[in-house]
């Protein structure tokens, strides 16, 4: 196989300009950056929540830690009549007052028997309504992919405006994560008769709870922007 | 890569007589372009985004050796094993030897056009492995023993009723009904969930490779590729040497362009960047990761006048907008890459001798170039291939002689004008008596239900000249 490597490199080198790395870098820098998508609102919380709705997600907001666990409990009760939920070994999740809402999270990787999981987004992107999850102990990929309902908590302080800001944010991480997942909706398919169906393999429902100092009218504005009111 | 493009015309005729599949394609040809158009309008500066990504792709291809080297170093540092394959057979062999080293039996695959190109499934199955395609469309065509008909939506040619019958035939359903698309998706989810959990090896493709950090980008709506990348203990990423982009920011720009051009969404449900194997303390993720980089003729394309074809980001927009693809369907092309991009790529990856009918499957309408996010001059490349076809004397003798006679004539403008004038006047006279509408030899059936337009009395050039004189 080393022969293959040598031969492929030789063939590609035969077409190259032979420019120095410095010249290549400066040529790349000279190409500038591409445009990003326009945001639906100048207020980031409303804009993010509107894009989540447009991507097929559902939303709620919580201004305190207690309200956050209550929002999770409300969702769990309404959808599954349960108080069980899977969660990664995330310190921010562990620190939430789950007992105040009568919830019993099971910390670890979700299995096929877990109906609902909760994750804490490392960051989120307003431009696309995406949450950024870094795979690892705090956020095992199984928790994002195996359950029927995936609840993601997003701190409004962690909102990044565009995908370019997300790139910069990744560049500033101290360690290179194994997996960086931008999740922007439930698992879906249109492979049968071009009919959009949720729950192809992963979550059928994707619920975002935006937490922190959120403007009072953000949720309502988001629903208006998404054309849901 | 196996091609059966010689029979394009016969296969296209078969496809046109399949009314249910034709209706599906017509729907695709209307719905997907409309979705793309709406997304482009909402984005606003789409042309500027296209130009930016094109300039980055051209730059990357110009310095591909540097970026490939950077990617390989970064991927190795991230803990991957990196392999190179000159052709499809080498890729299949390499993947098989990885699998055999682990004494693995079950393979879960994400959607990968590269492994369709190399025929990996057949090679693995011949070695006794159980290979399951997990993208729903790919799963359907695998169960049906067919090939994908579209590079993004592999099973769109199959009517819902056929998929229902297929599932009744292949799955032990008992008393369960499959009335709706939701029921069928739920059934596939149930079956494929077991495959994900039992798989020893996951195989996926990559939408892009990021040189600066060694990440592979994976874009899906189903999340099946992510399940393949995270649940089995060994992951193999099969991709090609031209998928490189210098920086993560370039991958993000390409992502904006790719998804809008494909489905009209701003982003897919899952966009993931994978660096390598699970770390100490991780409770999931593959313990071992391999990246297989395939050439299979790409370095030849890089060195040729067709280099711009390597800018392709595999969005499928040219297929959705091509009148020939929408009418004839993907299977008519007899190649894993159909439509305008396939009609350019297939002859370049195989040989013009095997697939010279494909560059002729074109009306030169130019829609593919209008919508191509990578600004690839597809009609021009198709024209160049037709020229090469003529040069290589691959056309039937009467067509070649006809083209020669035409070339001789158009190089003599006076004679051309006199003859075309005579032709126009004769046609006009024949048209007046309606003889033309009834008795064009070889077109009787066609004209039974259609009227030809009345021929003009004089040629376009003569009209233009007259108008110029009047002014």
From TrEMBL, chain A:
Domain named LUD: residues: 116-210
Pfam families in the cross-refs: LUD_dom
PANTHER family tied to this protein: LACTATE UTILIZATION PROTEIN C
Protein name stated in the entry: Lactate utilization protein C
Organism for this UniProt entry: Parahalioglobus pacificus
Organism ancestry: Bacteria, Pseudomonadati, Pseudomonadota, Gammaproteobacteria, Cellvibrionales
Automatic annotation (TrEMBL), chain B:
GO molecular function: 4 iron, 4 sulfur cluster binding; metal ion binding
Residue ranges constituting the 4Fe-4S ferredoxin-type domain according to the UniProt record: 300-332, 353-382
Cross-referenced SUPFAM superfamilies: alpha-helical ferredoxin, NagB/RpiA/CoA transferase-like
Entry keywords, A to Z: 4Fe-4S, Electron transport, Iron, Iron-sulfur, Metal-binding, Repeat, Transport
Pfam families (alphabetical): Fer4_8, LUD_dom
InterPro entries attached to this UniProt entry: 4Fe4S_Fe-S-bd, 4Fe4S_Fe_S_CS, FTHF_cligase-like_sf, Helical_ferredxn, LUD_dom, LutB/LldF, NagB/RpiA_transferase-like
TM region positions: none
GO BP, one annotated term: lactate metabolic process
Superkingdom per UniProt: Bacteria
The protein, known as: Iron-sulfur cluster-binding protein
């Amino acid at each position: 196989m080393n022969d293959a490597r040598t031969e492929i490199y030789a063939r590609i080198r035969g077409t190259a300009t032979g420019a120095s790395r410095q010249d290549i870098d400066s040529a790349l820098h000279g190409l500038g950056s591409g445009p990003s998508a326009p945001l639906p609102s100048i207020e980031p919380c409303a804009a993010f929540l509107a894009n989540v709705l447009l991507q097929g997600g559902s939303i709620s907001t919580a201004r305190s830690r207690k309200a956050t666990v209550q929002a999770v409990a409300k969702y769990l009760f309404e959808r599954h009549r349960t108080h069980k939920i899977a969660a990664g070994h995330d310190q921010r999740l562990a620190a939430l007052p789950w007992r105040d809402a009568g919830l019993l999270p099971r910390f670890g990787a979700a299995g096929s028997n877990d109906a609902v999981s909760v994750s804490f987004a490392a960051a989120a992107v307003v431009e696309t309504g995406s949450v950024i999850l870094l795979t690892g102990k705090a956020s095992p990929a199984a928790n994002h992919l195996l359950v029927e309902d995936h609840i993601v908590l997003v701190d409004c302080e962690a909102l990044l405006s565009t995908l370019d800001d997300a790139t910069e944010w990744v560049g500033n991480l101290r360690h290179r994560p194994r997996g960086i997942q931008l999740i922007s909706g439930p698992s879906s398919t249109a492979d049968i008769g071009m009919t959009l169906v949720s729950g192809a393999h992963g979550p059928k429902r994707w619920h975002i709870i935006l937490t922190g100092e959120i403007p009072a009218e953000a949720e309502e504005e988001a629903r208006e922007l998404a054309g849901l009111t | 890569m196996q091609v059966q493009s010689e029979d394009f015309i016969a296969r296209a005729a078969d496809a046109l007589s399949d009314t249910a599949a034709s209706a599906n394609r017509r729907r695709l040809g209307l719905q997907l372009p409309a979705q793309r158009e709406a997304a482009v309008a909402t984005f606003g500066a789409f042309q500027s985004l296209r130009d930016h990504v094109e300039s980055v792709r051209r730059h990357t291809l110009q310095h591909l050796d540097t970026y490939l080297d950077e990617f390989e170093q970064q991927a190795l540092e991230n803990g991957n094993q990196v392999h190179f394959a000159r052709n499809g057979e080498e890729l299949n062999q390499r993947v098989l030897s990885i699998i055999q080293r682990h004494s693995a039996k079950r393979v879960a695959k994400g959607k990968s056009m590269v492994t369709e190109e190399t025929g990996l499934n057949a090679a693995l199955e011949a070695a006794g492995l159980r290979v399951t395609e997990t993208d729903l469309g790919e799963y359907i065509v695998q169960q049906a023993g067919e090939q994908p008909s579209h590079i993004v939506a592999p099973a769109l040619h199959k009517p819902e009723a056929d998929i229902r019958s297929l599932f009744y035939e292949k799955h032990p359903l008992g008393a369960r009904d499959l009335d709706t698309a939701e029921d069928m998706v739920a059934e596939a989810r149930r079956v494929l969930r077991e495959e994900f959990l039992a798989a020893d090896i996951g195989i996926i493709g990559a939408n892009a490779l990021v040189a600066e950090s060694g990440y592979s980008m994976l874009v899906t709506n189903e999340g099946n590729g992510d399940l393949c990348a995270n649940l089995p203990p060994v992951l193999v990423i099969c991709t090609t040497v031209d998928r490189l982009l210098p920086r993560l920011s370039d991958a993000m720009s390409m992502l904006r362009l790719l998804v809008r051009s494909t489905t009209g969404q701003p982003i897919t449900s899952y966009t993931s960047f994978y660096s390598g194997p699970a770390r100490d303390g991780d409770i999931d993720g593959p313990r071992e990761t391999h990246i297989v980089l395939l050439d299979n003729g790409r370095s030849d394309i890089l060195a040729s006048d067709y280099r711009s074809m390597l800018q392709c980001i595999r969005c499928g927009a040219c297929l959705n907008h091509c009148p020939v693809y929408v009418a004839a369907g993907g299977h008519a092309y007899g190649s894993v890459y159909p439509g305008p991009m396939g009609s350019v790529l297939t002859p370049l990856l195989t040989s013009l001798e095997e697939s010279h009918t494909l560059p002729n499957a074109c009306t030169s309408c130019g829609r593919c170039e209008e919508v191509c996010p990578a600004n690839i001059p597809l009609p021009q490349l198709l024209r160049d291939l037709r020229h090469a076809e003529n040069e290589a004397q691959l056309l039937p003798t009467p067509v070649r002689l006809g083209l020669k006679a035409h070339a001789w004539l158009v190089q003599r403008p006076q004679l051309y004008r006199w003859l075309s004038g005579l032709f126009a006047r004769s046609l006009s006279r024949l048209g007046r008596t309606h003889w033309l509408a009834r008795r064009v030899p070889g077109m009787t059936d066609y004209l039974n239900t259609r009227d030809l337009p009345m021929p003009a009395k004089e040629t376009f050039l003569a009209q233009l000249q007259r108008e110029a004189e009047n002014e």
